[in-house]
Amino acid sequence: MQNKVANKNIIITGASSGIGERIAWHIAENGGVPIMLARSIDKLEKQQKLMEKELNAKSFAYKVNLQNSSEIDSVIEGILLKHEKIDGLINNAGTGMFAYVNDMAWPDVEGMFQLNVLALMRTTKLMLPHFLDNEEAHIINIASQAGKISTPKTAAYAATKHAVLGFTNALRLEIKQEKIHVTTVNLGPVRTNFFKEADPNGTYQKNVDRYMLDPDMVAAKIVQHLFTNKREINLPYWMELGSKLYHLFPQLMERLLKKQFDQK
């Protein structure tokens, strides 16, 4: 199969750990150039050195707090000045918080929307004029299966992922005549440090441990579909089937899956 990633400059947000880190590595392994964004510049620079040592791969690291709009603007402007051409954007950065609506801390809700939704939209909007001038580009937004099925304690988190799905689907329709691929990635639970904040007592992780996706496998699947017309990547497959059934028979599925829905 032709390697579509080689020599492509691809921005990855939230690239210092978890899925974002593994995406960066898979891009580098395929001859692409990961442009890594995260708050932890130390972790990014360590990855840079490892990529150069183990893969002889070029990469770039930029420190940014994506919950700060002015920092987003400044970093994206700097990237566009430094790099003649950017070929892809993977909006991976995100955070979560599991709590009943009555117990939600409002600063946590606002922070989650700023990172999961507004930063993703802002970064995409800033990059879009550049992509429209390219021969080909790809925008990948990491959403969640929670954006398709809301469960107890995920009201705010699921709302952010609903927003990501809505934004991405509308964007795809708006630029369908352009050579810009737009993909949504909808994931079930992935074995990353995401749950340190979302589920600090470990209840959900313990209940779904056997279902957790491997971040390296997820990253490989995403990179495999870079610069292809893939509308959605849905993992695990059985969860996507469940979401389709849920939309057809919501009341029935809520009764049948009550135990699964209450695992948080």
Report a brief summary of the structure.
The protein is α/β, with parallel strands linked by helices and 264 residues long.
Walk me through the structure.
The protein has a single domain (9-261), classed as NAD(P)-binding Rossmann-like Domain (Rossmann fold, 3-Layer(aba) Sandwich), CATH 3.40.50.720. The protein is 50% helix and 14% strand. It is built from eleven helices and seven strands. It has helices at residues 18-29, 41-55, 69-82, 106-132, 155-174, 194-198, 203-208, 215-224, 237-248, 250-256, 258-261, and strands at 9-13, 33-38, 60-63, 88-91, 137-142, 180-187, 232-235. Strands 3-2-1-4-5-6-7 form a seven-stranded parallel sheet, sandwiched between helices. Helix 1 packs across helix 8 (215-224). The mean pLDDT is 92.
What would you report as the Rg, rounded to the nearest angstrom? 18 Å
Tally the beta strands. 7
CATH H level: which superfamily? NAD(P)-binding Rossmann-like Domain
Gross morphology is globular
Structural class: alpha/beta
Q: Quaternary state, please?
A: single chain
SS field, number of helical segments? 11
Q: What is the percentage of strand-forming residues?
A: 5-15%
What is the CATH topology classification name? Rossmann fold
Fraction of helical residues: 40-55%
Mean pLDDT: 92
Task: Note the topology.
Blueprint: E1 9-13, H1 18-29, E2 33-38, H2 41-55, E3 60-63, H3 69-82, E4 88-91, H4 106-132, E5 137-142, H5 155-174, E6 180-187, H6 194-198, H7 203-208, H8 215-224, E7 232-235, H9 237-248, H10 250-256, H11 258-261
Parallel strand pairs: 1-2, 1-4, 2-3, 4-5, 5-6, 6-7
Helix pairs in contact: 1-8, 3-4, 4-5, 9-10
